[in-house]
Every structure is written in structure tokens, then in C-alpha cells.
Amino acid sequence: MIFKFFTSLKEQEIKAKRERLYRVAYSWCNDPGIADDIVNEALFKALKTKTELRDKKRLDSWLYKILSNCWYDYLRQKRPHEQLDNVVLLDENCPESCLQQHEVVQQVRNGVALLPLGQRQVLTLVDLEGLSYQEVAEILEVPIGTVMSRLNRARKLLKTELLNSEANMQKSAVKDGGHQAVTLRRIK
Asked: Disulfide engineering: 146 pairs with which of 31, 58, 142, 180, CB 3.0-4.6 Å?
């Protein structure tokens, strides 16, 4: 019965089915050669297992299911495998990311601590607390021009300190081979 169905299909109907399958396969892989191979494999499997189709009305869904299975087979066999060592973690809360963030915060705190008191006050009130120059001038009882000049000097000094700190970290990382030096000792 099914064999008669496949043999009774006109060549145009089969061609139309093939074109639709190809469009779907191409939309999945975006490669004409791969899409053609997947469709050919799907049609080959469909003709090979034509007796499994019981209802002629379900021909399209049956063919798409076979096409989908062929696509998954292709992905399992042909997809290049990537080394896990090369995978970049995207989770922002991973230990490495938290450690880097902690190190940056610590560098900024150390840099701010090195600033003279007046510059440190202005920098923290403006940049960390988000106060306006006028509000800072009133709090510290200094002219607004003094606030602006202290802030400018503080930012320049902090930038210099952070760049020096980063350069020192890179030098020590290169000296240690990219790893922190660990000293082992024997305990008796």
C-alpha cells in the first residue's frame, strides 16, 4: 500500500517535497551543500522505511521528522569538538570573575588610600557618592574651584597608581610563568 503510494506519487510531487525539505534544511544549517546532503539522506531513509508510514495525510510531518533526525545525526558526527580548556566561562559569578573583581576593588582602595586627605575626600564624595561639586564644596567648606582642582588631581594620581599597579601585576605574572609562586616545604 505504501509502496504503491510512493510509486504513485508523480515526479513533480516528490520534487516539491524535496524543495520544501531543502528550504527547511538550509534554514537549519545555512550551507547549501550540507542542506542537500541532509535532504538526500532524509529521502533515502524515507524510501527505505516507507512501510512505516500508515497515513498518507501525515507524509509531510513524517518526512520532516526524518529530516530532523538526519540533521541531529549530522550534528553529532560532523560538529567540530572544542577543547574544554578553550571555553570561556560566561557566568559573571564564577570564582575567577569574583577574584578579578575583588582584586580590582582592592587596587582602587589602595590607590585611594595613597591620595592626600583633601583629594581623597573630594574623590569619594563626587565619584563614589555621586554628590555635585556644589554639595561637596558646602560639606568641606571650600570654594567650588578647589573641589574641581582637587578632583582633577585625585583622578590623575589614582589613574597613575592603578596603571602602575596593573603593570607590576603583569610583570610578576610573567616572572612566575603566569602562576603564583608556591613554596613547598617538608614537615617532619
From this structure: 142
